[in-house]
Every structure is written in structure tokens, then in C-alpha cells.
């Protein structure tokens, strides 16, 4: 696998350098993986214009069966490059390779295959006999499942005849940039998919751009509110998929061992970086001690360690900033009277050395 | 065969286990099963493998199953009692758990999955259920009971998977031949082959090892 030392923005089927440069790191060891661009307002503008041109001149006019061909082609290339994408996702995001390899990337390919199948059958999908695309979609995705979120956003939009400008999260841009390479490899017409990397300002420039017809966002409730305000009163359509930390409720007649597996999957899957992670646990008092003992016993078996180790259960928290936020919240919990407990465990440190050399996918 | 084996093993420190109680069906009058057990113990067996009465168990006559195990345990005297649940015929995990609990309450020293005489023998999920049962039984009663998956474990790699489950479910206390054993004659051959491979760096064929 090759990570380029530097990536630009993917606009109109070509790579452009981008004025503002920044770095993306491997959260497991803080090593810099690559330099990426943070798109400015004018760069976002050119991406939206490219998407508009591609929409009007090529993609919306193309018969569904032809759009399907491109999507099938993308899906197959994703399968061919699955190992590379899985390693890259684990490097940039910190999630265990077991999850990126067995969950994220196979699902990404499956989504493209699935929506490719819909592209020529939209007349039968329940939207009337001749559904029309909306136009240019501005899409902003989070860092917890970078490539999977990209697939959720891009595959259906393209299948329906829309073109997209997508902004991946600033801590996890690399798989989206490799996806841009895949679009080139698949010979996708220029401007149908545009990838603009960057942080909040880039996202703001994208969702508030007047040339965007549809805003799709997955991420924090706070940013979701800001986006709702930004698009209010415009003709834009909007989809928001926001955080909703969920509760586990365990009653006394539950099978305790199975309940514990559910609790552990709920809160520790993907380091807990899940919009619906089970971050609250409510237990009926009569089985409180039993559940807590079983949960502690189970937690002691979780392996925290190098995301690229196949035996790792819990990899790296996505960024130093997120780790700091977790620590702050834990402190607040302690101050409010919560009792802390962690299993006695040693964290296996991530391998040092350049991932560019050490991990050939 | 028990007297022959007993004679051969005298003074070796190797324990001698014998099946009893109308193995493998367990379908005989209780008096016959008890006589079978007493004969094996008298002949020198220090461990008895019994099979539970599956007919009674599946019909819901748990008390009968329990009473039979108690009686056999009594007939064992000082010999250890291993209770074979024949999990391949118990149909559900709930039944495996219930039979495990029954065997432990009735005084079994070991619970074992299978006789090896029915198509489905030990499986990893069934072993997991039994390990959870012995773990919870010790927590409730203070008495530790051993587990023996038998049949179907053919390779060293399979065995390692089981040992991981033992460690992660019941814990380190069970990682001991006194508390966890495999009943798998084919496994021994594979283990010997893997060890040979480790020392010589080459694989050899099964023909060079024991034939069973």
C-alpha cells in the first residue's frame, strides 16, 4: 500500500493542490500519515460548479443502466482494493483491522453493488413512474466510519442521478481520497464525484453554498443544529443523522451473559465511536451486583492495542482531541460522584516505524 | 478390560477411567447401571463415566435424572464421577445448561459433552454453555466442577480455540488437566504431528503416527 506524502482536492475529475495545507495522523502513534488540503471557500465553490456542470451536462441525462455500470465498476474496484482500504482505514481512523477488514470495507462494496442495482429500477422504487434527481448534493461525513459513511452518502446519490461534493472529516480524509482515485480508475465522468477535504470551515462553505440543492450530514448534534440554521429558509433539502447516545436496560429475567455481550458490543464496538453507542446502562436493582460482576469479568478480557493487530478489540481513540474530551467527561463524572473502574490491563503500543513501508496490503 | 488395565497401570500413577451405566445409551434399569458401576470400581477404576438418562430428561422427568446421578455417585464410592450429557441429543442450549446444572447439583465431579457414539459431538458453543455453568455453579456453591468436551476436536488449532474459550469464560482455574480435558483421540495424532513439525520444520504424514 502506498500513501502519498501529499494529497490535493479532487475537483472535476482532477487533483488540485489547495492553498491551505494540513496533516492527518495515525491516532495510534501520532505519526503523520500524509499532508492534505483544507479547502477554502473558493475551492469549495469550484467543486460545486464542477458538480453542477457534470449534473446538467452528463449525469442527470445518462440512462440509469449506464449509471449502474459505473457504480458496479466502482464496487468491483473497492473489492479488489479491499485490503488496501482496510489497512488505510485502520491507520487513519484507529479502528481495529478486524473491523475495517470484516465490517467496514465489505459493507462499502455491498452498498455500491446494491445501489448500482437500483439505478435502472427507480421507476419501481415507489417514487412514481419517473423520479427525477435533485441536483448537486453537498455531503459532510464523520470520522467514526469514514469510508462506510461515504458509501452511504455517495452510492444512493449517484444511483439516482445526482452529483456530489463530499467533505470527509478532517481526522480521516485518506480513504475518501483513495476513493477519488477509484473514481478515476472507474472512468467516472469528471465532476460527478468531488472530494473536498477540510475541517468545519470547509463544511460550512459547502452546506451554505447556494449551488447546493441537497445537504446531507452525519455527525454531532451541535453541528447538525448549525447546519439546520444555515439551510433554513433556502430551497435546499436536508438530511441530518445526528448523535443519540443510547441506554441499555437490563431486567432481572435477562440472560446475564448474553446481556453483557450486548452491553460490551454496544459501548466498546469501534471504541464507542458510534452514534447510537450504549453509553448508559440501567440495571434492575435485584440483579445489579450480578450484572456488574459479569460485566467487569467480560471487560477484563477486552484487548486494547495496536489497531493493525488482528487480536485487538479496542484500537485507538480517533484523535488526541477526542481522547481529551473523553478524559474531561470522565473527570466531570468523577466530580459528580461516579465511581471509576477499569480492568487491570496493559495497552499494547502501536508498532513504530513508517506505515508506508511496514504494511503492504 | 478394567482388571487388565488396572494391572498394567499399577504403580504408574496413571488414573483409570471406565465407562459404566449401560454406555453409551444409558437405557437400562437402574439396578443394572448401579451394578455396572460397582463392578468397574471394584475392578480398579478410579473414575466412572456415566451417561444421563436422556429419555427421562427430554420427557421433563428431571427428578428421575437427578436421582439416578445421585445413586451412581453413591455407587462410585471414592471414584470420581464424570457425567456425560450427550449434548448432541439435547436439542437446545437451554437443555445443555439445565442438564449441566442437574449433574453438578447431583454431585458430578466432571461434566462431559458426548459419548462419541452419536453424530453430533462436542461443539464450541455447547462447551461455552457448559463452562458458563461450571463458573456460575462455583460462584453459587463454592464447588468446582470439571468440563470435558469429547468428540469432534481433531486438530491442535481446534484445541487452542477451546482453550481460549476456557480461559475467557471459566478462567485460569480451569486451565488444568484436573479441571478441563479433551476427549479426542485424533487430536493426539495432530498434536504429535505439529510438535514434530516444530522440531524438524517439516510436515510428515499421519501414517508415521499412531493408528486408532
Describe this structure as you would to a colleague.
The complex is a heterodimer of chains A (361) and B (212). Chain A has helices spanning 41-59, 64-80, 82-93, 97-118, 146-159, 174-185, 200-207, 221-231, 256-268, 288-299, 320-335, 355-358; strands at 9-11, 14-16, 20-26, 31-38, 136-140, 163-167, 193-195, 214-219, 237-242, 247-250, 280-283. Chain A is α/β, with parallel strands linked by helices. Chain A has two domains: 9-242, 3-Layer(aba) Sandwich (Aldehyde Dehydrogenase, Chain A, domain 1); 247-335, Aldehyde Dehydrogenase, Chain A, domain 2, CATH 3.40.309.10. In chain A, strands 7-6-5-8-9 form a five-stranded parallel beta sheet, sandwiched between helices. Chain A has a two-stranded antiparallel sheet with strand order 1-2. In chain A, strands 3-4 form a two-stranded antiparallel ribbon. In chain A, helix 2 (64-80) runs antiparallel to helix 4 and helix 3 crosses helix 4 (97-118). Chain B has one domain (2-154, 174-184): Alpha-Beta Barrel (TIM Barrel). Chain B is built from eight helices and five strands, in the order H-E-H-E-H-H-E-H-E-H-E-H-H. Chain B has helices spanning 2-9, 30-42, 54-58, 62-76, 93-105, 124-141, 156-169, 185-200, and strands at 17-19, 47-51, 80-84, 110-112, 146-148. A five-stranded parallel beta sheet of chain B has the order 1-2-3-4-5, with helices on one face. The radius of gyration of chain B is 18 Å and the shape is globular. Chain A: Residues 349-361 have a biased composition (Polar residues). Chain A: The active site is at residue 241. Chain A: One of its GO terms (molecular function) is oxidoreductase activity, acting on the aldehyde or oxo group of donors, NAD or NADP as acceptor. Chain A: Belongs to the aldehyde dehydrogenase family.
Amino acid at each position: 500500500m502506498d500513501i502519498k506524502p501529499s494529497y490535493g482536492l479532487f475537483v472535476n475529475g482532477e487533483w488540485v493542490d489547495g492553498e491551505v495545507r494540513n496533516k492527518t495522523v495515525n491516532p495510534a502513534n501520532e505519526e503523520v500519515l500524509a499532508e492534505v488540503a483544507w479547502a477554502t471557500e473558493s475551492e469549495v465553490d469550484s467543486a460545486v460548479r464542477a458538480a453542477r456542470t457534470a449534473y446538467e451536462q452528463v449525469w442527470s441525462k445518462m440512462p440509469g443502466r449506464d449509471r449502474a455500470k459505473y457504480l458496479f465498476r466502482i464496487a468491483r474496484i473497492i473489492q479488489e482494493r479491499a485490503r488496501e482500504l482496510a489497512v488505510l482505514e485502520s491507520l487513519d481512523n484507529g479502528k481495529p483491522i478486524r473491523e475495517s477488514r470484516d465490517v467496514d470495507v465489505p459493507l462499502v462494496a455491498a452498498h455500491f453493488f446494491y445501489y448500482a442495482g437500483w439505478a435502472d429500477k427507480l421507476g419501481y422504487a415507489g417514487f412514481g413512474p419517473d423520479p427525477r434527481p435533485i441536483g448537486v448534493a453537498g455531503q459532510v461525513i464523520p470520522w467514526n466510519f469514514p469510508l462506510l459513511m461515504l458509501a452511504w452518502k455517495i452510492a444512493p446519490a449517484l444511483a439516482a442521478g445526482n452529483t456530489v461534493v463530499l467533505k470527509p472529516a478532517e481526522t480521516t480524509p485518506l480513504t475518501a481520497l483513495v476513493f477519488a482515485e477509484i473514481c478515476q480508475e472507474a472512468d467516472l465522468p469528471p465532476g460527478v464525484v468531488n472530494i473536498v477535504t477540510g475541517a468545519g470551515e470547509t463544511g460550512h462553505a459547502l452546506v451554505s453554498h447556494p449551488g447546493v440543492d441537497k445537504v446531507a450530514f452525519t455527525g454531532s448534534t451541535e453541528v447538525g443544529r448549525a447546519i439546520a440554521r444555515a439551510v433554513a429558509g433556502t430551497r435546499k433539502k436536508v438530511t441530518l443523522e445526528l448523535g443519540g447516545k443510547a441506554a441499555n436496560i437490563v431486567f432481572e429475567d435477562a440472560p446475564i451473559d448474553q446481556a453483557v455481550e450486548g452491553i460490551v458490543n454496544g459501548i466498546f464496538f469501534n471504541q464507542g465511536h458510534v452514534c447510537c453507542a450504549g453509553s448508559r446502562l440501567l440495571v434492575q436493582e435485584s440483579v445489579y451486583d450480578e450484572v456488574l460482576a459479569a460485566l467487569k469479568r467480560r471487560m477484563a478480557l477486552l484487548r486494547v492495542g495496536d489497531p493493525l493487530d488482528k487480536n485487538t478489540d479496542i484500537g485507538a481513540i480517533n484523535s488526541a482531541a477526542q481522547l481529551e474530551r473523553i478524559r474531561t467527561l470522565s473527570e466531570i463524572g468523577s466530580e459528580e460522584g461516579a465511581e471509576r473502574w477499569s480492568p487491570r490491563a496493559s495497552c499494547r503500543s502501536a508498532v513504530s516505524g513508517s506505515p508506508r513501508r511496514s504494511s503492504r496490503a | 478390560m478394567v482388571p487388565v488395565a488396572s494391572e498394567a497401570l499399577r504403580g504408574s500413577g496413571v488414573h483409570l477411567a471406565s465407562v459404566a451405566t449401560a454406555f453409551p445409551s444409558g437405557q437400562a434399569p437402574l439396578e443394572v447401571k448401579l451394578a455396572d458401576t460397582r463392578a468397574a470400581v471394584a475392578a480398579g477404576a478410579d473414575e466412572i463415566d456415566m451417561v444421563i438418562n436422556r429419555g427421562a430428561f427430554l420427557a421433563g422427568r428431571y427428578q428421575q435424572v437427578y436421582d439416578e446421578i445421585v445413586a451412581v455417585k453413591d455407587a462410585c464410592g471414592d471414584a470420581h464421577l464424570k457425567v456425560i450429557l450427550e449434548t448432541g441429543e439435547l436439542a437446545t442450549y437451554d437443555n445443555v445448561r439445565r442438564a449441566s446444572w442437574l449433574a453438578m447439583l447431583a454431585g458430578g465431579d466432571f461434566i462431559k459433552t458426548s459419548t462419541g457414539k452419536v453424530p453430533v459431538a462436542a461443539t464450541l458453543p455447547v462447551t461455552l454453555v457448559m463452562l458458563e455453568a461450571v463458573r456460575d455453579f462455583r460462584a453459587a456453591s463454592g464447588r468446582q466442577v470439571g468440563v470435558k468436551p469429547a468428540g469432534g476436536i481433531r486438530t491442535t488449532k481446534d484445541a487452542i480455540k477451546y482453550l481460549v474459550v476456557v480461559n475467557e469464560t471459566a478462567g485460569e482455574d480451569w486451565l488444568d488437566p484436573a479441571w478441563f480435558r479433551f476427549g479426542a483421540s485424533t487430536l493426539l495424532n495432530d498434536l504429535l504431528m505439529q510438535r514434530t513439525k516444530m522440531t524438524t520444520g517439516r510436515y510428515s504424514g499421519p501414517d508415521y503416527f499412531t493408528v486408532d
